[in-house]
Specification:
Blueprint (H helix, E strand, L loop, with lengths): L1 H6 L4 E5 L7 H17 L3 E5 L9 H5 L8 H7 L4 H17 L3 E2 L2 H4 L8 E2 L2 E2 L9 H11 L13
Parallel strand pairs: 1-2, 2-3
Antiparallel strand pairs: 4-5
Helix pairs in contact: 2-5
Length: 156
């Protein structure tokens, strides 16, 4: 991908991936190398941080007919993993402090520490960690105010 982007006309490049290591310093170091190479090629790179995963398959959980379980049982059965959310919010915060041009989605997804996994009773995640199409649209609309306005989609 780096070879493609360094040969492509300068543009806004938004990088996104899931974390692979528990040490944000290691991720920040390798990410800054990529960002530096993109800047040298004339691009304006940004890093979109991880969305906070529910840790449970919210969509499958919500696919059970409403009459099958009580609301309270359904709510407890479908509750996201709070400790996972706390860890991921902290991780994104650390990366935001370490990586220039980092866009942290956690303040938008989890204002006041309460994370959003459903909108209008529609799951924003298709499993325990991947966004649905609706979830992608929902969160990008929320993040528009902090994303570069001249961003365009380029597929290598």
């Amino acid at each position: 991908a780096l070879k493609f982007f360094t040969s492509y006309r300068p543009s806004v490049v938004i990088l996104s991936s899931t974390r692979r290591r528990s040490d944000p310093h290691a991720i920040a170091k390798s990410t800054e190398v990529i960002l530096s190479d993109l800047r040298k090629a004339g691009h304006k790179p940004f890093v979109l941080g991880d969305f906070v995963r529910p840790g449970k398959d919210i969509r499958a959980c919500r696919n059970v007919p409403a009459w099958f379980f009580s609301d309270s049982f359904q709510d407890s059965r479908c509750a996201a993993d709070a400790s996972l959310a706390t860890n991921e919010i902290s991780y994104n915060k650390q990366l935001a402090e370490l990586v220039a041009d980092f866009v942290n989605p956690a303040p938008f997804q989890c204002p006041n520490g309460q994370c959003t996994y459903l909108a209008n009773d529609v799951s924003l995640f298709r499993d325990s960690h991947h966004l649905t199409t609706e979830g992608s649209i929902y969160f990008i609309q929320m993040l528009r105010s902090v994303l570069p306005t001249e961003a365009t989609l380029v597929r290598p």
